[in-house]
Specification:
The protein is of the alpha/beta class. The protein has 15 helices and 11 strands. The strands form 2 sheets. Strands 4-6-5-10-11-9-7-8 form an 8-stranded mixed sheet, sandwiched between helices. Strands 1-3-2 form a 3-stranded mixed sheet. α10 crosses α11 and α10 packs across α12. It is globular, with a radius of gyration of 21 Å.
């Protein structure tokens, strides 16, 4: 295994291919070697894909054209929502075991058009419904920083693959924090883009009232910026349109942010206890931002009130009902006993109790809340919180049992405490960046929520922070703590 190639970001790998120093075939061979060597340790990749299929380029490792931004770079796709024709697609569920996609999503085509070589699928929890990556179907993905601990979820397989150095970046999606939480626990950059920035079609459009977003996990800010440049933009018929970007995000990532007005808080939303290491990391982030010339103030958007909490419960329950109905129609049958996990059964049951009126009232309430949050961003450029409030939990803590099917939901409150779902409710962009480590040397992520359409602000600040407090050189031990 070439250790130098292993830890290069995607931008540098593509530069080597374009300059002729490394071939695309060599990059692919190295990535496959890493899967064979490292995946038995972390269990991030649940299916390998051949690069000579119609939906994977470059074919057979051939050298792609020089104008592609990620020429020949190996890439992994999360096994949730983003389908690729002719490839396995289980969404982490035994109900879907053996299912094969019959079409490709627009984003998969766009990934290929950048020159990325899609070589495999990554693990996820069942239907992405839990903040872990431990499905019964494929087994638990292990955090490269401590193999006894969770990656969070639901994009945990992709996060582990990038953190372990298998690939430089990997696809993920986010319905309530599923890009940002794994980024925080695995020491990565996790951007949830503005609603409508990245297409969800042709299979999906208005996913759960616009809460869902597609993108990727990366090790560097410049990779995230260049990838968003390459895949952003509406597809015909998209129900949402993000504000146009004034210029490429790659240019924003090399532009100083100027003085930003940043609201900051580390106060949990339900009175939970924040880990002392995370409070120290938050205080250090505030000091760093102040030292960089930003105006940081203790402030936060108004919290969800009782009506808002009722609305989000109704909308998420309706999402579960939609998933059950969608796959029942597509497969031609409902799940047999034992084909879905205990927590999924609970969520499906909740979904059946939510009426269409409940769902639409919930959407309207969340839209009212979004307008109030928009007013907050008339005063502030960004809102800073810890991404999560606690270090990675031991594997198994967040999973359900037949005797206690909601155990994971209950335990998730130990680390989900900073309103990550605001980004999904409002459609605003948010980014988690690895701005520190805890006393055990594990990454600590800090989250920045921006105004609607303001990815440029996130890229400018994140690049400044990356330069002031570099994180790309940190390497996971790939062993279990003692």
């Amino acid at each position: 295994m070439d250790e130098q190639l292993r830890w290069m970001d995607a931008t540098e790998q593509a530069d080597l291919v374009r300059s002729g120093q490394v071939s695309a075939a060599e990059l692919l061979a190295e990535a496959r070697d890493r899967i064979r060597e490292l995946n038995p340790v972390v269990n991030a990749v649940i299916a390998g894909l051949d690069t000579d299929t119609p939906d994977a380029t470059p074919a057979n490792g051939s050298t792609p054209t020089d104008d592609l931004p990620f020429a020949g770079v190996p890439f992994l796709v999360k096994d949730l929502a983003l389908e690729i024709a002719g490839t396995p697609f289980s969404e982490g569920s035994r109900w879907l075991a053996g299912n094969v996609s019959g079409h490709s999503q627009e984003l998969a085509r766009r990934f290929r058009q950048t020159g990325l070589a899609i070589i495999g699928k990554t693990n996820t929890c069942e239907f992405g419904l839990s903040p872990h990556c431990e499905p019964v179907l494929h087994g638990a993905t292990r955090n490269p920083w401590d193999l006894s601990r969770s990656t969070s979820g639901s994009s945990g397989g992709s996060a582990a693959a990038v953190a372990a150095g298998i690939v430089p970046m990997a696809h993920g999606n986010d319905l309530g924090g599923s890009l940002r939480y794994p980024a925080a626990w695995c020491g990565l950059v996790g951007l949830k883009p503005t609603r409508g920035r990245v297409p969800l079609g042709p299979e999906y459009g208005d996913v759960v009232g616009g809460l869902a977003a597609e993108f990727a996990l990366t090790r560097t800010v410049r990779d995230a910026a260049a990838l968003l440049d390459a895949v952003a933009g509406p597809a015909p018929g998209d129900p949402y349109l993000a504000p146009p970007r004034p210029r490429p995000y790659a240019a924003e990532a090399v532009t100083p942010p100027g003085q930003l007005r940043i609201a900051a808080t580390a106060t949990p939303n339900r009175g939970q206890t924040v880990h002392p290491d995370y409070l120290r990391a938050f205080d250090a982030a505030v000091r760093l931002l102040s030292d960089l010339g930003h105006d940081v103030q203790e402030a936060h958007p108004e919290p969800l009130d009782r009506a808002g909490h009722h609305a989000i419960r109704a909308v998420y329950a309706a999402a579960a009902a939609w998933i059950e109905g969608y796959w029942t129609r597509r497969l031609g049958r409902g799940p047999e006993p034992g084909e879905v996990e205990p927590y999924t059964e609970v969520l499906f049951g909740r979904g059946r109790k939510v009426s269409a009126g409940d769902y639409l009232q919930g959407v309207e309430e969340l839209q009212r809340f979004s307008r109030r949050v928009a007013g907050f961003f008339q005063t502030y450029d960004l809102w800073l919180t810890p991404t999560v409030g606690w270090p990675p939990l031991p594997l198994g803590t967040l999973t359900a049992t037949a005797e206690d099917p909601v155990r994971g939901e209950r335990e998730a409150g130990r680390f989900l405490m900073f309103d990550g779902e605001y980004a999904n409710i409002t459609g605003n962009p948010a980014m988690s960046v690895p701005l520190g480590t805890d006393s055990a040397g594990l990454p600590v992520g800090m989250s920045f929520l921006a105004g609607f359409g303001a990815e440029a602000t996130l890229f400018r600040l994140a690049a400044q922070l990356e330069q002031a407090s570099p994180w790309a050189g940190r390497r996971p031990a790939l062993k279990q703590s003692t």
